[in-house]
Specification:
Layout lengths: L22 E3 L4 H12 L1 H7 L1 E3 L2 E8 L5 H11 L7 E12 L4 E4 L7 E10 L12 E5 L7 E5 L6 E4 L6 E3 L6 E11 L2 H4 L11
Antiparallel strand pairs: 1-9, 2-3, 3-4, 4-11, 5-10, 6-9, 6-11, 7-8, 7-10
This protein binds fe (ii) ion.
């Protein structure tokens, strides 16, 4: 069982008023996922828009890549059916992970109150069976005596909706060659509590 000892962002207390369900979603089709995966792998995009991050030595990272704007809007429209409050965009982000990358267990900052992680595709060597997936682990009720650990094994086009500021999540070491993934984030349309995160003007996560 994974353990989490970190601190939650102060906005986590607002989930009582704005609950975000933890659930799998299917907001885009396989064709859209494949096209997005190709965009992440496009050498011209990598050269012009890609960034390196010390925490993910094998990854190419994209902050607000313009080629994912339409998918961001579509995912936002898709998840509104699962929420009983309106949402405002903060930011989105994508990574093309490589061999050996991992995501340490953490919770997110305030801009990620409503979060979706969306899988675009994988490349694995021939040693792996077709349909191999890199699981994302989540820990519900992490502060209780009986935390519940769930692994999501997403295929291209699959995503999951989650309350990023309260549910610890992680990924163990990636053993494939490439994994294209995007992260989309919103906050409740409640300026009194969340206006500071609207548009995520100067932070990235
Ligand atoms: Fe996160």
């Amino acid at each position: 069982m994974m353990r989490f000892f970190g601190k939650l962002h102060p906005v986590a207390r607002h989930y009582a008023d704005y609950p975000v369900p933890l659930r799998t979603i299917r907001p885009i089709g396989a064709d859209q996922a494949a096209a997005a995966h190709d965009a992440l792998r496009d050498p011209a995009n990598i050269a012009q828009l890609g960034q390196k991050e010390a925490a993910y030595p094998s990854a190419v990272c994209y902050y607000r890549p313009p080629f994912l704007t339409d998918i961001f809007r579509a995912v936002g429209d898709h998840i509104r059916r699962f929420l009983d409050f309106d949402i405002v965009e903060t930011y989105y982000y994508a990574r093309l992970y490589g061999l050996g990358d991992q995501l340490k267990i953490h919770t997110d900052r305030g801009s990620c109150f409503v979060s979706v992680s969306l899988c675009f595709g994988y490349e694995y060597s021939d040693m792996f069976p077709a349909g191999s997936a890199w699981p994302i682990g989540v820990l519900e009720d992490h502060a209780s005596a009986a935390p519940r650990e769930t692994l999501f094994r997403m295929q291209p086009g699959d995503g999951f909706l989650y309350p990023g500021c309260s549910v610890p999540h992680w990924r163990d070491v990636f053993l494939g060659t490439r994994c294209g993934q995007a992260f989309f984030h919103w906050v409740p349309a409640d300026p009194a509590r969340f206006a500071e995160f609207y548009g995520d003007p100067n932070l990235k996560g």
